[in-house]
Amino acid sequence: MEEPRPAPAANGKGVRLPRRARRAQLLSAALEVFVAQGYHAAAMDDIAERAGVSKPVLYQHFPGKLDLYLALLDQSCDQIISAAGRALESTEDNKQRVTATMHAFYDYVADAEGAFRLVFESDLTNEPAVRARVDRVTTECAKLIAHVIADDTGLPEEQSQLLAVSLVGMGQVSARFWLQERGTIDQDAAAALVSGLAWRGIGGYPRTDDHH
Contact, 98 vs 198, CB < 8 A? Predict the structure, then answer.
């Protein structure tokens, strides 16, 4: 028996979807429009059309363009923070943890949907609610990494946090540069290269706690 084809129902106007499914559909359409056009140029009309819904349906879920953008931003920020957390939990070896985390940043930036642009290349960073979310990515990822640095070096919390923020910055900036340049270095090789730099840097701090 042939499987039913859900695409027309998911996109057709007037089709009632469960609220969560409709919200996911609207967010997916909005992501495409925001990534392609930027916040300021994007229009709710375009997003409704992309999602195949009427504007009233879109406004039922998101009262305005900023609400929609912030919902997407939350989703995207959670995605990279969760990826960093999973990378750090994937092994007990701290060198491998740094490598896995750097790969997580490169995976996130290389994702075809381009959601990273909402976080790292937003044209709305003067909006406090947007700035807070972008800063949360750095802070939350750095908190996770700081535990690894403290464990490996014995450095106090404040110093470990500063080094961790530096590593997050290294991952974000290098991954975006790599994607933009589109040179001959493949993704895994690029992430491994930067991981090596990061680990050699952390390894330069002698352990100050004999228990580690």
Answer: yes
d(CA 98, CA 166): 13
Say how far apart CA 76 and CA 174 lie, in whole Å: 19
Task: Examine the pLDDT at 171 and tell me if it is beyond 50.
Answer: yes
Q: Per the confidence metrics, is the pTM higher than 0.85?
A: no
Superfamily of domain 73-212: Tetracycline Repressor, domain 2 (1.10.357.10)
How far is Cα 128 from Cα 121, in angstroms, rounded to an integer? 15
Q: What is the pLDDT of residue 11?
A: 45
pLDDT, one tens digit per residue, over 91-134 is 888 889 889 999 999 999 998 788 888 888 888 878 899 999 88
Question: Is 1.10.10.60 the CATH number for 14-63?
Answer: yes
CB-CB neighbours of 166 under 10 Å: 16
Q: Is the pLDDT of residue 87 over 70?
A: yes
According to CATH, where is 1.10.357.10 located in the chain? 73-212
Q: Using the Cα atoms of residue 193, residue 194, residue 195 and residue 199 in order, give the sign of their dihedral.
A: positive
